[in-house]
Amino acid sequence: MKGFFKNVLANIVAIVILCFVFFFFFIIMIAFGSMSSSESVSVKKNSVLTINLKTDIIDSPTEEKQDIFNIKNKNMNVLIYDAIEAIHKAKSDDNIKGISIEVDHLNAGITHIDDLRSAIEDFKKSGKFVYAYGNGVSQTSYYLGSVADQYYLNPSGGIELKGLATEVTFFKDFAEKYGIGIEVIRHGKYKAAVEPFLRNEISPENKEQLSTLLNDIWANTSSKIAASRKMSSEDFKTAVDSLYGMIPDLTLKYKLADKLIQKTEYDDIIRKKLNLSEKDKLNKISLHKYVDSFKDKDSDSEKIAVLYASGSINNGDEYNEIYSEKYVKYIKELQDDKNIKAVVLRINSPGGSANASDEILFELQQLKKKKPLIVSFGDYAASGGYYIAMAADKIYSEPNTLTGSIGVFGILPYFKDIANKNGIRSDIVATNANSAFYSSLHGLTPYGVNMMTKSVEGTYKRFVYFVTQNRKKTFEQIDNVGGGRVWSGTSAKNIGLVDELGTLQDAVKFAAQKANLKSYSVDSYPKALNTFEKFFGNMDEDEISARVIKNKIGKVNYEILEQLTDEKLKSEVKMEMPYKVSIK
């Protein structure tokens, strides 16, 4: 017995020591990370600015990878605003002699790549070179790389150049088979977010809007690739339709690539371009490090604030995505900060909670009374994302932004049939006529359906009202282009849903002009979390579980699971876009 207690005590002491060592190790990691991030970066002579596989282009500080347990991910995040500023700075930087694009799979949105391409096109006017190299190249990466003076491909590589397509998955038969009922209430024939629960095939309206949207984006994208590669539109279409990019020899024959070489041979070409000997080191500086060499060195007291609103819109006070309580605080801080002379709201959101969107819009309207408020759209500014833009003095959209989706819906699943099949039933005892207008087993009562419909209709009318005020149009005009329909930025400009086609940089410049500023610095909000906050901000059990599941099944599959299981996503009227589109 004495030996037993001795062993137990020894194990307890060992566990305590291990916990202490573990905690001490992470404190050192956090301190070391903070020290390394504060080191200054110098740019050597004869450097090449490199966009490589370790670069993730993100829209907002809230998109920063915050799970430090995920040690597999060593990519560096760069804000799209900073990336564009870096390329503009490199144009006149004597130490930067050219740009090398070395990405097979670029993690960036379609509008981000548009802006990067435009900035690199402008960079080329300096006379400096732009080269690109690829192995197994995604369509996204080729879209960026095709801007180069010369495109080099690995002899055993390929280019996934295939055009755009979308696949809509339907759950109606699945729900019926397993006894899951789904009450859907919507306004707008184009509000396709609910179609997978109502139909077994795509509706004519949804097919029409998807076809228009994809063709708008592809026309813009394909014309730029063809022009950069000096191909006729007919030849480029043939190459895409025939999947010639998959065969290395055919990429040469059809002008998709200039030469098939190994990576070391590519580096030698750059070395020769710089007149370096074999003994000289090839100085490549990543986009991330180059940004660090000049970022946050502005000293102007007068500032333009860029408030990033990225992700779905929700009620609550969390950091990631757009949570109404958190954003109300941000907006009030910007409103009261005397050094902030104007605000640019950068929206990259498919929408979400109607209530949260309304809260944010109100506070933005109060902000606008005190200082200029300019809006810039990223990849998405749809539904609730478009709604919160209605406080703007002026709206800038990218040509490929998914815009509009002026519509409202509610989804309420119930499980009466599946419960009954498995011997589960319930009785309800209530104090009032509609105390149980909805339950997970019985669904909505007829009166509940009537009131939910009125709620959705009322929310839609409120949505359209704010759009009519901002866009200076009638209810009928907005209703005709609303109904939940999603438009490209180009089409949105043509029908008056936005003011100008332009970048985040364009919006910042206009904000400065509106505030009569000649000299200013740009501040980002919300501020990125430091290493300490990233670590201790992830200690919530549910959050850790969610991240583990997301890593295992993938982001897209997790979003589908979340729609079916997250109570807060099912308990309110939604202003949300029906789908996401990405070029892959």
Automatic annotation (TrEMBL):
Transmembrane segments: 12-35
Domain Peptidase S49, chain residue ranges per copy: 123-260, 366-518
Keyword Hydrolase annotated: yes
Pfam families named among the record's database cross-references: Peptidase_S49 (PF01343)
InterPro entries attached to this UniProt entry: ClpP/crotonase-like_dom_sf (IPR029045), Pept_S49_pIV (IPR004634), Pept_S49_SppA (IPR004635), Peptidase_S49 (IPR002142), S49_SppA_67K_type_N (IPR047217), S49_SppA_C (IPR047272)
Keyword Cell membrane annotated: no
Keywords annotated in UniProt: Hydrolase, Membrane, Protease, Serine protease, Transmembrane, Transmembrane helix
Cellular localization per UniProt: Membrane
PANTHER family: PEPTIDASE S49 DOMAIN-CONTAINING PROTEIN (PTHR33209:SF1), PROTEASE 4 (PTHR33209)
Family label: Belongs to the peptidase S49 family.
Protein's name in the database: Signal peptide peptidase SppA
Organism: Chryseobacterium oryzae
Taxonomic lineage: Bacteria, Pseudomonadati, Bacteroidota, Flavobacteriia, Flavobacteriales
